[in-house]
């Protein structure tokens, strides 16, 4: 099974998790970390490392979802990348989280990473594209 950690700027991570839980119910192997300008980067790294290690101790591989590539949450998360054990995806959105709530037990970490990245891309629409006008 795969544990999910959402890491974002400000309170986006908590809001995404709470919204997903309102739709699909509790997500016990999903954690959220929000980073603000006042946070000490080393303390954030320690907290994130503890969450990753807890999931790994429980036999989980870990997928970290960040809000935008190149931002502090993404940069911190990238330091934990570990092939086949800890994967990082930038550009998190609510459809990705909802899909992960149902799909994460069915695939390996590498398969799920490829799948959910493409799924996230496919769930971005413009009105003109959707309405065909």
Describe this structure in words.
- The protein has 133 residues and is α/β, with parallel strands linked by helices.
- It has 6 helices and 4 strands.
- It has a 4-stranded parallel sheet with strand order 2-1-3-4, with helices on both faces.
- Strand 1, helix 1 and strand 2 form a beta-alpha-beta unit.
- The chain is globular.
- The termini are far apart.
- 31% of the residues are buried.
- The mean pLDDT is 94.
Helix content: 40-55%
SS element count, helices: 6
In one word, what is the shape? globular
| Residue-averaged pLDDT | 94
- Strand portion, in percent? 15-25%
Sheet with the most strands: spatial strand order = 2-1-3-4
Mind summarizing the main beta sheet? 4 strands, parallel
Low-confidence stretches: none
SSE order, one letter for each helix or strand: EHEHEHEHHH
């Amino acid at each position: 099974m795969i544990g999910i950690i959402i890491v974002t700027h400000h309170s986006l991570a908590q809001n995404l998790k709470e919204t997903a839980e309102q739709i699909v119910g509790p997500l016990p192997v999903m954690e959220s970390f929000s980073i603000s300008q006042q946070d000490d980067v080393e303390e954030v790294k320690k907290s994130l490392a503890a969450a990753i290690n807890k999931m790994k101790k429980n036999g989980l591989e870990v997928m970290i979802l960040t809000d935008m590539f190149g931002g502090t949450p993404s940069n911190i998360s990238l330091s934990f990348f570990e092939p086949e054990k800890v994967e990082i995806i930038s550009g998190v959105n609510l459809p990705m989280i909802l899909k992960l709530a149902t799909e994460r037990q069915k695939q390996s970490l590498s398969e799920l990473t490829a799948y959910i990245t493409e799924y996230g891309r496919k769930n971005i629409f413009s009105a003109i594209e959707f309405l065909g006008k």
